[in-house]
Amino acid sequence: RYEAIWIDNGSTGMAMMTGACAADGKTFTYNGEYADPMADGKVKKFRAVCKVVDNDTHTFEFFEPGPDGK
What we know:
Elements: E1 2-6, E2 15-21, E3 27-36, E4 42-54, E5 57-63
Antiparallel strand pairs: 1-2, 2-3, 3-4, 4-5
């Protein structure tokens, strides 16, 4: 189990995440939530995927439901 926090300069809050590493040791999938400052602090859930491509390249993607809930 892995714990992570995402902080950026787009808001004053933090996104908390908990996840696991795939068997390949290169793909980490997290589920988390954050208080959306654009929605009056409403808590939103998201999924994040971090992939280790090589020693010099990592990708990090965020996914969250759209307005239709999908």
